[in-house]
Design a protein that fits this description.
Layout lengths: L1 E8 L3 H12 L1 H8 L1 E9 L13 E3 L3 H5 L5 E4 L6 H11 L3 E4 L2 H17 L4 E2 L10 H8 L5 E7 L2 H13 L3 H10 L8 H4 L2 H15 L9 E2 L7 H9 L2 E12 L2 E12 L11 E8 L3 E8 L3 H18 L30 E11 L4 H11 L4 E6 L8 E8 L2 E2 H13 L3 E10 L4
Parallel strand pairs: 1-2, 1-4, 2-3, 4-5, 5-6, 8-10, 10-17
Antiparallel strand pairs: 7-9, 7-11, 9-10, 11-12, 13-15, 13-16, 13-17, 14-15
Helix pairs in contact: 1-12, 2-12, 4-5, 5-10, 7-8, 13-14
Bound molecules: L-homoserine.
């Protein structure tokens, strides 16, 4: 059996998990790879007591791994887009295959890195970059290759999902749950990446590019976080039969591609609405296969290592082979990528949940419905709560039908100008995911 030398850069949560699973399941992994996979060099500033690296060459300078002539595959697990990018470029230029779990790096610099890899006749693989242990990249790139993908939607940030689940089930406040998510190690080094949707946007743009065969366009993802979702809206959504989830959604429309991350009301009857805690799930709708669902741990040491090692196995089969059997990085040949535009958020089509603080007197509701009706928006459901004693404004909860977002935003502006309406109207998008 040929020997494949792997260099791991970064020995944190995912790096140590990768090292441990590779050594624990060595026989099965080698049999699948038809190779003897050896971790022969580690680049890490300090050892990690979670793994026994006795006998492995360890360099404090990670670039020593990229320069090591014996390394066939460099595994980048340091994160970030500065040093990590330099490291990956150096490895590719030195003719090494790269495996990475770095979603930010692929989302923001993937187009450039894929070209460098192609020019040096090596590959860059990133199964672990999206949804941790769920093999969604392989499923989209290979398993669903027969299909025209119509849309996909997913819960792809575990921290955000954990926060929303705790708010719904225990009525806890946002800040309080975020602190717990950080203590449990779910959150990114900068937790605003989780709660403001940047992490989910990184993952979504990768999925969208593979689904529709477009170059990565991270700067075009519409991103809205969950920091403004209040327990009140979680409660009212529940009364209407919905759960609020932080959803990444991409859909092919005739005039372009929708690409958006935001809090979303989903009917409780949908499987996605029942994905709780730190778990991730993605629904992909293909024209031939119909809807398919992928569910599993979206983060964590060995769960993410599972995806990293899947890439190591796949790439090991290529090492030393003359025939190019590699799957292109985005599934489509790089010279066949389409130039479909990403639609601005105003042109996307969606339904809305509105919470309006209105004076409880005759005629107010009819004015609001008139504004919506003038904009061609019909009301799907409505709840008005009885005012409590001395309460001047009562919450009015409206679910609209699907409409072009700009029309809804214009109607909301008019509603906000009514002197019988207080404060800004709370609005959250709704997706039926049919
Ligand atoms: N912070 C990320 C999450 C880790 O919560 O999903 C996995 O990408």
């Amino acid at each position: 059996m040929k020997q494949v030398n792997v260099g791991i850069c970064g020995l944190g949560t995912v790096g140590s998990g990768t090292f441990n699973v590779l050594s624990r399941n060595k026989d099965d992994i080698n049999a699948r790879a038809a190779s003897n996979i050896v971790v022969s060099h580690i680049g890490a500033r300090r050892p990690n007591s979670a793994c026994d690296t006795t006998g492995v060459n360890i360099s404090a300078d990670i670039f020593a791994v990229a320069e090591d002539p014996d390394i066939d595959i460099l595994v980048e697990l340091i994160g970030g887009t500065t040093v990590a990018k330099d490291l990956v470029v150096r490895a590719l230029q030195n003719g090494k295959h790269v495996v990475t779990a770095n979603k930010a790096l692929i989302a923001e610099f993937g187009n450039e890195l894929f070209d460098i890899a192609k020019n040096h006749k090596v590959t860059i693989s990133y199964e672990a970059a999206v949804a941790g242990g769920i093999p969604i990249i392989g499923a989209l790139r290979e398993g669903l290759a027969a299909n025209k993908i119509e849309w996909l939607a997913g819960i792809i940030n575990g921290t955000g999902n954990f926060i929303l689940t705790e708010m719904r089930d225990k009525g806890r406040e946002f800040e309080d749950v975020l602190e717990e998510a950080q203590a449990l190690g779910y959150a990114e080094a900068d937790p605003t990446f989780d709660v403001e949707g940047i992490d989910a946007a990184h993952k979504l743009v990768i999925l969208s590019s593979i689904a529709f065969g477009t170059p990565l366009q991270f700067e075009k993802v519409f991103t809205e976080g969950i920091s403004k979702v209040s327990p009140l809206d979680v409660f009212y959504a529940g009364e209407l039969g919905y759960s609020i989830k932080h959803l990444g959604l991409t859909r092919k429309r005739e005039n372009g591609i929708e690409l958006r991350v935001h809090p979303t009301l989903i009917p409780k009857t949908r499987l996605l609405a029942n994905v709780d805690g730190v778990m991730n799930a993605i629904v992909v709708k293909g024209d031939a296969v119909g809807p398919t669902l992928y569910y599993g741990a979206g983060a964590g040491s060995e769960a993410t290592a599972s995806a990293v090692i899947a890439d190591i196995v796949r790439v090991s089969r290529l090492v030393g082979e003359r025939v190019n059997l590699n799957v292109p990085p985005l599934g489509y040949s790089l010279d066949k990528l389409s130039s479909d535009d990403v639609l601005p958020i105003e042109q996307t089509e969606t339904a809305f949940y509105l919470r309006i603080a209105a004076v409880d007197k005759p005629g107010v509701l009819s004015k609001i419905s008139q504004i919506l009706s003038d904009a061609g928006i019909s009301i799907e459901a409505l709840i008005q709560k009885e005012p409590k004693e001395d309460q001047e404004f009562v919450p009015l909860i409206i679910l609209t039908n699907k409409a072009i977002e700009k029309n809804i935003i214009d109607a909301i502006e008019k509603i906000e100008q009514l002197d019988t309406v207080k404060e800004n109207v709370v609005r959250i998008r709704v997706e039926s995911l049919k």
